[in-house]
Amino acid sequence: VQLVESGGGSVQSGGSLRLSCAASGYTASMYYIGWFRQAPGKEREGVATFDSDGRATYADSVKGRFTVSQDNAKNTLYLQMNSLKSEDTAMYSCAAGGLGYFVGYRYWGQGTQVTVSS
Fold it and tell me: Which of 3, 7, 13, 61 could form a disulfide with 109 if both were Cys (CB 3.0 to 4.6 A apart)?
């Protein structure tokens, strides 16, 4: 299984970015797939995830601003991030093979950096 993220970058507060995660060698039907982030000096936290039925769950800190979506034909997961804040600055990684909303993920991408300046 290979997960490759793209779309990170630098943006001003209030701006938007869309992250992509291209998955290969992975069958999404049975497990959770989602996005995580880790800021310097902080623990990794779950951002948004899809369960095996395609239902999305979001961290409280991003509800109403971020939208997770997936294109099964392209095996690609997306994260649309709007109204970005400085506290959203982090390395964002996609993960697959999860056993729960934000737990037990088996496969990880290398991440893409998102930097939001105020």
Answer: 3
41: tokens are 């000096």
Residue 34, φ and ψ in degrees, nearest 5: -170, -170
Q: Is the dihedral of CA 70, 76, 77, 79 positive or negative?
A: negative
Give the position of tokens 């902080």.
Answer: 42
The overall average pLDDT reported for the chain is: 93
More confident residue, 81 or 72: 81
Question: Count of CB atoms within 10 A of residue 94's CB?
Answer: 31
Longest alpha-carbon distance in the chain: 40
Mode of pairing for the β-strands spanning 2-6 and 56-58 = unpaired
- Whether the per-residue pLDDT at 30 is higher than 80: the answer is no
16-35 burial by CB neighbour count: b if 16+ within 10 A, else e?
Answer: ebebbbbbeebebeebbbbb
